[in-house]
Design goal:
Chain lengths: ~280, ~475
């Protein structure tokens, strides 16, 4: 049987591999190549070396959006995970209507980012209109609007993962701790948290990369207004590529840097949280 | 053995599905307009029954139709969302008449350049597209077919409407437009009868000071006149901000060019920026909404403000007619004033007239497609159906010979013509020389921040003057 699997492995893996190559590897290599080129449309590019990477720094919006994105990522990762964990704790206590609550909390995650962005734009503009302001009045409104939006969208999803983690804690472990006289706080700190560490790893990885790569919600909610001040990295790259003639290659170079950044952060984060995981 | 065969067949089938999935053609383009097009069906299509001028123009069409019987097809990437539906109807008519496939796609407001950029990279690239003038041409000139020998070039009334690069004709203006301050004549006439009226007739509004006096007193007595403000919301959403960062900014640039006797520059001085500030202040102060709300006000909001009679003045152009009449504005209640910014001698200033709509043919398309496209363009501006649709359904003024027989039905166009015939000097469209889209965005953002009080006017000056130099350098390096 093992032999048969080995023998037919290429046949079964080939379609997927092919799709992966066409859909990911080729565009990726092409993308990296284009970051060293000057072009108007991607089909006729002229090689210019590192010029695009140098021109990035002549564009002040990149650094701003880098900090803006970093700040947003920190705030939203903390907010989403703390909220999701709290909700998960509440919904594993066996209160009435637990299943209904879980379903409702999960539902926003089923709505696409662009639609969510417009929904929240209407809601938030409606609230701010009372003060004669709009979301794009200042980048702070856009920032907190995005945080609220992302919490609303992601808390339910992360909650499901945390619930699964909490339910996997063996009952005897908690019982033993209780017999030893642990109070609720000690129970949370020394039993629950270490035991759900795998969930924390996954959730923080998902929220971290999601927040860093955020695009559609940003586009729909503020589109970077005012003055590109609420523009996050992904949107900045898009705007550089499509919004400025002659800057297509620079946009591409930014995208390569962006990829390296996201990969680096994800690896560091995974390593850091993995180390804290324990075996029951 | 059987098993082996089965698995081989199965995997081949899977492979085939994957490949067809990837190699799917772009046929979806031919169906239904893209989601971002704004399709408007107009009830007054019956106008198309006009029989006049059918003789010569129709004959031409017949001849062209014969020539266009090749295998080529046309893909037109339309710039004007206002006329998205009209172009699709006209394309369908052409296909019915000649059998040549014409696909029309319309880019959403403010996204033409990005749509064009991604469409041009496709194997089924647009065969007919637009550039907005010399600056737009600089980006796309390597893709433009030389139109100097084409029939449509021969149809142009004047060489002024051709966009040239050296000896080659790269673009042909197909519509000439005019903008100014559109006013609601009904409300304004009512205002002239009041005792607080600053002037007694619209002819007396011939300078910035008069305009300001009128707008201020309308704003003050808004309740009495039944309006919410003098001007519509000066929305800075991308569907509307071009009215200010591009069209309004044309005036200080135009006057600076006039004063310096130039037609373009690599470094603007901003001589008339103070005037720009005055008119912008007027727009945002005497308005239907608070300046802090401008960032999310759209073009449709402004149209609604005006069409519902909430505002008297609305800065826009002849192209707004279809939207206004679609919203129930009667032709006779529309009037247009020049945009006065307080420059000496502006009593003789007319409306702003020019074109930023140049048709270009994609050089990289196949020979048949290029021929089909040229035939289609020619049909649009010579045949009865084409001329009728362009002038009466879309409300365009087209600089081609055949259009002499199709006097404009758009009242705003007739108003613009009246200004010219009464000896006023039209303001040229100098904004086609603005160094880049990014410059416009910079000025727009600064205008908005100044309006809502989160920025200073000096930021507008910086974006205008310093931004011009740096953007000019960035796009010409």
């Amino acid at each position: 049987m093992d032999k048969a699997i080995k023998k037919y492995f290429p046949i079964f893996a080939l379609p997927t591999l092919l799709a992966f190559t066409i859909g990911f590897i080729i565009p990726f290599i092409l993308g990296v190549y284009l970051s060293f080129c000057e072009f108007t449309t991607v089909t006729d590019a002229k090689f210019v070396g590192f010029k695009n990477y140098i021109r990035i720094w002549g564009d002040g919006t990149f650094i701003h959006s880098l900090w803006y994105t970093a700040l947003f990522t920190i705030v939203s990762v903390l907010a989403i995970n703390i909220l999701a964990f709290a909700v998960a704790m509440l919904l594993t206590k066996g209160i009435k209507g637990t299943n209904m609550f879980r379903t409702i909390f999960f539902m926003p995650n089923l709505i696409g980012g662009i639609i969510l962005g417009y929904i929240w734009q209407l809601i938030l503009n409606g609230i701010l209109a009372g003060m004669e302001r709009t979301l794009t009045y200042s980048s702070a409104y856009g920032f907190w609007g995005l945080v609220i939006l992302m919490c609303w969208q992601q808390v339910g999803y992360m909650m499901i993962i945390y619930i699964a983690g909490i339910q996997n804690i063996p009952g005897d472990l908690i019982e033993a701790a209780k017999i030893d006289g642990a109070n609720n706080r000690q129970l949370l700190r020394h039993v629950t948290l270490p035991m759900v560490m795998p969930s924390i790893t996954i959730c923080s990885f998902l929220t971290l990369t999601n927040s860093f790569k955020l695009f559609d919600q940003n586009l729909a909610l503020t589109a970077g207004e005012p003055s590109n001040k609420s523009e996050m990295l992904a949107l900045n790259i898009f705007n550089t590529f499509y919004g400025r003639n002659g800057w297509e290659g620079v946009g591409q170079a930014k995208a390569v840097i962006f990829f390296i950044l996201v990969a680096l952060i994800a690896v560091v984060q995974l390593k850091a949280t993995r180390e804290k995981e324990v075996q029951a | 053995m059987k098993k082996k065969l089965l698995s081989a067949v199965l995997s081949a089938a899977m492979l085939a599905t994957v490949l067809t999935g990837c190699g799917g053609n772009d046929s979806s383009q031919t169906q239904a307009p893209a989601a971002d097009t704004k399709t408007e069906t107009k009830a007054d299509d019956t106008k198309a029954d006009d029989t006049k001028a059918e003789d010569t123009a129709a004959d031409n069409a017949q001849a062209d139709a014969g020539a266009a019987s090749g295998s080529g097809k046309v893909y037109y990437l339309n710039f004007k969302p206002e006329q998205a539906g009209d172009w699709e109807e006209l394309a369908a008519k052409y296909t019915a008449e000649t059998g040549v496939e014409v696909v029309v796609q319309t880019a959403a407001s403010g996204t033409y350049e990005s749509t064009l950029k991604s469409e041009m990279a496709k194997s089924e690239a647009p065969t007919l597209f637009q550039v907005n003038g010399p600056v737009g041409l600089a980006t796309w000139k390597d893709y433009c077919y030389d139109l100097s020998g084409s029939e449509i070039y021969g149809q142009l009334k004047s060489d002024d409407f051709a966009l040239k690069d050296g000896d080659e004709v790269k673009g042909i203006a197909y519509v000439v437009e005019t903008y100014g301050i559109i006013y609601n004549a009904d409300i304004l006439n009512d205002y002239f009868t009041k005792d607080y009226a600053a002037v007694k007739s619209v002819e007396e509004i011939n300078s910035f000071d008069k305009l300001k006096a009128v707008a201020d007193s309308i704003q003050e007595n808004a309740d009495d006149l039944g309006v919410k403000g003098a001007f519509t919301s000066a929305g800075m959403d991308s569907s509307s901000d071009w009215r200010f960062k591009t069209h309004l900014a044309n005036l200080p640039i135009y006057y600076e060019y006039q004063a310096d006797g130039i037609g373009s520059t690599d470094a603007i001085k901003g001589t008339y920026l103070e005037n720009y500030k005055n008119i912008w202040d007027l727009y945002i102060t005497d308005s239907v909404c608070a300046p802090s709300l401008l960032s999310s006000k759209t073009g449709e909001d402004a149209t609604a403000d005006f069409a519902l009679g909430d505002a008297v003045f609305y800065q826009n152009g002849t192209w707004a007619y279809t939207d206004l009449s679609g919203n129930g504005m009667a032709d006779e209640s529309l009037g247009m004033l020049p945009i006065y910014i307080g420059v000496e001698g502006e009593e003789n200033q007319g409306l702003c007239t020019g074109s930023e709509n140049y048709w270009c043919v994609n050089k990289n398309a196949s020979a048949e497609d290029i021929q089909a496209t040229l035939d289609f363009m020619n049909w649009c501006v010579t045949s009865h159906d084409g001329c009728d649709a362009l002038s009466y359904i879309m409300g365009f003024v087209c600089p081609f010979k055949a259009f002499d027989d199709y006097p404009a039905a758009n009242p705003l166009v007739n108003i613009a013509n009246d200004y010219v015939s009464s000896g006023k000097t039209s303001v040229a469209w100098t904004f086609t020389t603005m160094p880049s889209e990014n410059w416009k965005n910079g000025v727009g953002s600064a205008l908005l921040e100044y309006a809502q009080g989160t920025g200073e006017w000096s930021a507008v000056e910086t974006a205008f003057v310093d931004g011009w130099a740096s953007e000019f350098a960035a796009s010409n390096n």
